[in-house]
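hi!! sorry for the late reply, been swamped w classes. u asked for the two structures so here they r. pasted raw, havent cleaned anything up. first the sequence of the first protein and right below it the tokens
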Amino acid sequence: MSSTAVFTKASPLDALQNWLPKLVLAPSMLIVLVGFYGYILWTFLLSFTNSSFMPSYKWVGLLQYERLWNNDRWWVASKNLLVFGGLFITISLAIGVLLAVLLDQRIRREGFIRTVYLYPMALSMIVTGTAWKWLLNPGLGIDKMLRDWGWEGFRFDWLVDPDRVVYCLVIAAVWQASGFVMALFLAHIAIKAFDLVAAMTAGGPGYASDLPAMFMYTHTFTRGQMGLGAASAILMLGAVMAIVVPYLYSELRNKRHD
């Protein structure tokens, strides 16, 4: 007894259907590989060189990381990140949960509260920083308005106080992000909040309100210290990975057990 096998040759249309999804995704994958992972690797390599305004590939080992360790401005920026990130996340979570509970109770004026609750997130941090810079300006904003109303002894000059200016960043960021109650997402915003600082304080007075992202930008693009900026970027990446990797590991492990 013999059997015959019937082989059907795939048509060009079938082959095109099989390859079309891969062809469509290929440019995006290439962009991600080169524009994201490629530049992370390039930045990592630059952090071990003496690059200034232009990339240089003269190997200097851990010199840039030693310079960071001995750089007072970097430690001010790191301390500010702890203060800003901690208060930002804690207060945003508290206000976000409170507003979510109020909305869940079907209170009166729910539509108004929902608008106030969500509207700030439609704004960019540049707009938020610029608006709050005006509001907290001692000569223009809340401080001047209350003194014009008769509160002569009122003073709110935190924006020009090196010891308190970082709390102005917290106020503006909390106002914008209270609608988000996901701590992980908020911690990414705290680390990369360059645009808020650039618009509101530019890191000043002096560098009292610097955050690591502002430190990296300043030293890379205005001070001609690309190697030092690359080293600070790698440390920022390490901080993000320290948050993200345990979270992803926990999520994947939980899914594996389900």
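now the second protein. again sequence first, tokens right under
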Amino acid sequence: MLYYLKLCLFLLLVSLSSKADCLPDIEGLCIPGVTITEDTQVDITEEDKGTEIVTTTTTTVTTTTTTVTNEDSGDILDGDNDYVTTTKEGDMDYDWGGQGPANIPSGNSCYGLGADKCAQITGGGNSTSTMGVPGMGTTFINTIDISDLKIDNGGKVKYTIEVDKQDAQDRIYMHITGLNGTSQVFSGTDILSESGVSTGYQSYNGSFDFGGVLKSLKIEIGGRDINLAVGPLFDDVTVNVFYNVINTIVEQQITSVEEIVYLNIFDPVEIEFATEVIEFNDITVDEAGDVEFAPIESQPEEVSYETVELEIQEFELDIPEPEVASVEIEAEMELEIEMEVAQVEEAVDEQPTEEETNELDNKANEEPTPENNDTSEQKEAEVENSEEAEEPVKQPSAKEKAATKIVKKIDDKARYDESNQMKTLIVMQILGNTKTFFDTQSTIQDTNVNEYLNKVIDDPYSGLFIAEQGQIMEDIINAQY
């Protein structure tokens, strides 16, 4: 358990240390790219069910793919982009409206800005503007709704402006405020040309970072005409909003592995039965949780006389020729015969005298001598045994051995199916050289037995047997209750 807790803590730390660099509340633009983080959690549970112990290992792999891109709104002061009307465009053909006096000159009055129209700051006052910028005499203010962009992960607002300041004592600035409804998201002011600096014609650009949600912009361009001669001139204002788009895809893969340890409490017969059920059946579980068993139908083997004969020939090639052991029966028999001959010669040399012969004859007449009979019978038995010993032991042929192997090869559980029964029968035909056994078959003619079927044999005791059987069946049924 302690090892398991350490493993989970380690995987959690790996996951936390692999966060994406671009957070939702970051200010400015994120670096575009794809960040993939993988969190692996392993849960191990153990359940003792009495008859078995089930250990379940659940591995949960959570893959988070974060894709960051930078989107561009385009110039929101261009009327073609549908953010402003013609009178609010950045080409300054019209006065946006604002604080203090202003003018829209054209031709030579725009100096380095071109012959088309431009905007001129003519106010010489010194106050704070609506956007909170001090040193203001005139302002041009433009409010733009950009909520359709659905900006919610920060970004950057970039601007460009063309300025021609003829009088070094004048001043001009650029101010932009970003809003989320009525809440201020950012506010930035750039002094384009301060009083006392001789700049003439210049092209300026700048940017302001922001984070979170941005729905609208307020653009303020202002300044002072101190000498009240030719005030600061500006034209061709552009504002683009670059914002982060973050797409996050979370994929979770859960793998469960069960390890079952059966306790030694089952009957071996039951285990063998269950093993056979699983081996010879397709087991399925339907949506309702019911278990169904479908027997596995094995493909019947095509068995013919030719296939079995070919199989026997293959087995014959694999069976080596047996080594015939030399039996020293003849030597033993010769030794026994020599011993018997020696005994007979001794008996001849020790022939009895006439007196002994007469005594022996008298004794022979009085009673039979079973010993001699036993000796003759024993000799006959020994001769028969010697003859049997001389007969060589018949060894089974290679074909018989191959046939035996084929029959033993048949599985006990499938020994009585149709194909194996046929194979066994063909093996017997091959060994008996009865290939044409079934070629000629006689047909047995059916006998008309209707005459016998129509006869009724009366049984006077049938009623008693039926009544007794009924009583026995009723007793069996009642015994169940």
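hope this helps!! also noticed smth abt the second:
DSSP finds ten helices and 13 strands in the chain.
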